[in-house]
Amino acid sequence: MTLMWSILTSLLLLLQSCTGDKSCEIWSSAGDVVQRGSTFRVYCTFRLKCKPSMYSGHKPRHQDHQTYNSSTIYLDVKNLTEDFTYSCDCGHDSSNTENKPDSCGLDIFVGYPPDQPTNLSCINHVSEQNLSSAVVCSWASGRKTYIKNEQKLWVRTFTHDALEGSEFFGLTAKGSPIVRAAFTVKSSVQVISIQASVTNPLGSAETQEKNYSLSDIMMPPPPVLHQVDCSSRSCSIKMKENVPTHHLDINYKEENEEHWTLNPNLTVINVSTHVQSLQPYRTYHFRVRSKFRTGLWSDWSKTVSKRTQEEAPARALDVWYAVHRNSLRIYWKKLDISVAQGHILDYIITVYNQSLTLNASSDKQNISVPFCSNCDITVSARNSRGALLLLKSPSIPLEPKLFLCQ
Ligand SMILES: *[C@@H]1O[C@H](CO)[C@@H](O)[C@H](O)[C@H]1NC(C)=O
Ligand SMILES: *[C@@H]1O[C@H](CO)[C@@H](O)[C@H](O)[C@H]1NC(C)=O
Ligand SMILES: *[C@@H]1O[C@H](CO)[C@@H](O)[C@H](O)[C@H]1NC(C)=O
Ligand SMILES: *[C@@H]1O[C@H](CO)[C@@H](O)[C@H](O)[C@H]1NC(C)=O
Ligand SMILES: *[C@@H]1O[C@H](CO)[C@@H](O)[C@H](O)[C@H]1NC(C)=O
Ligand SMILES: *[C@@H]1O[C@H](CO)[C@@H](O)[C@H](O)[C@H]1NC(C)=O
Ligand SMILES: *[C@@H]1O[C@H](CO)[C@@H](O)[C@H](O)[C@H]1NC(C)=O
Ligand SMILES: *[C@@H]1O[C@H](CO)[C@@H](O)[C@H](O)[C@H]1NC(C)=O
Ligand SMILES: *[C@@H]1O[C@H](CO)[C@@H](O)[C@H](O)[C@H]1NC(C)=O
Ligand SMILES: *[C@@H]1O[C@H](CO)[C@@H](O)[C@H](O)[C@H]1NC(C)=O
């Protein structure tokens, strides 16, 4: 919010040096920072005898003031909900505008005292090879205050060797509604004690002191998933870790699935591992996270997607036929993607008794063959891995003879 008075006064300062003192002094009974919804008085005391007037607003509008005593006027302000400007003036004396003393003004800022910070927690980020660590603490600041807050994190460090003593320091924290502060600690530090505080002109609040053992809050950086190789039913996963860790979780899910499946607690051999029991010709998403022997799980790595390889179709087609004078028209239903197990290239139609084999392209769903009686006909879908062999399957062969015997 731009406040006119601050701008005006900086301009008027120049004039003031020529024209002398201000004509009045202005103040509020509640100070210049007030709580939202406050009711209070704004007073102006005049140094000279004049016809006083009072204004308010960013585009100053004349207000009907009350008289306090012979030199002081006031205005009752009710339920102020936003920053506002007030000013007083010695009424216009048209005879002598040049030497008219300056008016006086006041910016009132409206806000709330700070809420008590909640959810204070810290993470000890262990990064890179030399195991240096940065502790990041965060908390929720609660309701917006609309005025400037001073947010601090107070830290006391303890080493296992009492002789090394403890250190105590305060850090400026930033952010809203989540506030953060970060610091580094020496490797000898084992325990930290922290407390968050916030202060503004309307009040202050602080959390309880909280103790952390650094080993309980250490977190590795997320592993980098850098290679996924899949056969039709399993994928091998290679990852890179900046810091060696002890536990690894792999999450995977099929494309379009909502929930991840957890492959938990894997023993990682040379940062490479396998996910088994997958389905052919599906796209899977993978992500991993890691953990030291103690402490917190890292964030999840970036997701890597990979499609498993094809397998020959898993199920026979639904096939039926109709008789047309001198021919048979064979019909079939397309395979569902879940049993096609690959991209269907074409259909192979075999009429055994006639030693006849036909191909139909993948967009076809019927074909005409010469009429035959008591013959066996099979239709199989073919993908890059082949077709389901149906010679032994009794479900598909057709027996047009049944028709013809009538
Ligand atoms: C009027 O009231 C103001 C504020 O209390 C005080 O400073 C001032 O001296 C008073 N003036 C007279 C003439 O009583
Ligand atoms: C104060 O002003 C706000 C906004 O104009 C209004 O919602 C609220 O009811 C008022 N409160 C009182 C006590 O008048
Ligand atoms: C504090 O943490 C709890 C549990 O993690 C969460 O449900 C809640 O929303 C958090 N509160 C704030 C203000 O962030
Ligand atoms: C070890 O950590 C310190 C502090 O973070 C850093 O300045 C330094 O470059 C790191 N050294 C190596 C070899 O990574
Ligand atoms: C935190 O640890 C310090 C040092 O051991 C101890 O003096 C203090 O009482 C502990 N505070 C809490 C809240 O446990
Ligand atoms: C994971 O591994 C840890 C340590 O090896 C073990 O204590 C824990 O029981 C394991 N959890 C599961 C779910 O296997
Ligand atoms: C780990 O991987 C590296 C590089 O891929 C290889 O040289 C090494 O032999 C592997 N170690 C084990 C124990 O498999
Ligand atoms: C056609 O072939 C099937 C199986 O190969 C056989 O059972 C059937 O008798 C044959 N029909 C004729 C007319 O040869
Ligand atoms: C059907 O397609 C397969 C694969 O392209 C091919 O080997 C075969 O000869 C074709 N058969 C006919 C009858 O066209
Ligand atoms: C046979 O399949 C073709 C497409 O390949 C289609 O246009 C046609 O309508 C089908 N015939 C019958 C009788 O269903």
TrEMBL record:
As for membrane topology, the entry says: Single-pass type I membrane protein
Keyword annotations from UniProtKB, A to Z: Glycoprotein, Membrane, Receptor, Repeat, Signal, Transmembrane, Transmembrane helix
Q: Main location per UniProt? A: membrane
Instruction: State the InterPro entries in the record.
Output: FN3_dom, FN3_sf, Ig-like_fold, Type1_Cytokine_Rcpt_Type2
Q: Which PROSITE patterns match?
A: FN3
Q: Spell out the CDD domains in the cross-references.
A: FN3
Renumbered to this chain, the signal peptide range is 1-20
Answer yes or no on keyword Transmembrane helix: yes
Residue ranges of the Fibronectin type-III domain?
Answer: 219-311
The record's subcellular location field reads: Membrane
SMART domains according to UniProt = FN3
One GO cellular component this record assigns the protein to is:
plasma membrane
Name the family. Answer: Belongs to the type I cytokine receptor family. Type 2 subfamily.
This protein's name: Fibronectin type-III domain-containing protein
